[in-house]
Design goal:
- The protein has 125 residues and is mainly alpha-helical.
- It has one domain.
- 74% of the residues lie in helices and 0% in strands.
- Helix 1 runs antiparallel to helix 3, helix 1 packs antiparallel against helix 7 and helix 3 crosses helix 5.
- The longest helix is centred in the middle third of the chain and has 23 residues.
- It is globular.
- The chain starts with 7 loop residues before the first helix and ends in a 5-residue tail after the last helix.
């Protein structure tokens, strides 16, 4: 059975949605709470995994988003982070996840929105 890959629009919007969720989770917790409670960590890791999964789909999408926009997004890093979360979850560095969520996700969202506009002329609400 062959898998049909959707347009890059779908995957980019999924990624933007994941970025928004991560930012909401970070906004609703302090750094101290994040390190004490697993719920926020788990929720953010789930969204980071989702980001990486969408990158894997984009790699196979007929739109060739990654090939057209190789800079501005660390596609390989997001996919690698997904693999780490999914296959070695207990070794994921909590501090690294917090730092990524706080320091990188907003700029990732901006980059993804820019790609959506440049490639498809669409914005995301």
């Amino acid at each position: 059975m062959s898998t049909r890959y959707k347009s890059g629009i779908h995957y980019l919007k999924e990624m933007i949605g994941a970025c928004i969720k991560i930012q909401e989770y970070v906004a609703n917790t302090t750094e101290e709470e994040f390190f004490k409670q697993r719920e926020s960590f788990d929720a953010i890791c789930m969204q980071l995994s989702h980001l990486g999964e969408q990158v894997a789909h984009l790699e196979k999408s007929p739109d060739k988003i990654i090939q057209h926009f190789p800079d501005g997004v660390n596609w390989h890093g997001l996919n690698g982070l997904r693999n780490r979360i999914n296959h070695a979850y207990m070794t994921v560095d909590v501090e690294m996840i917090w730092q990524f969520a706080v320091e990188e996700v907003t700029s990732l969202e901006v980059a993804l929105r820019n790609i959506l506009i440049k490639r498809y002329g669409q914005s995301f609400p």
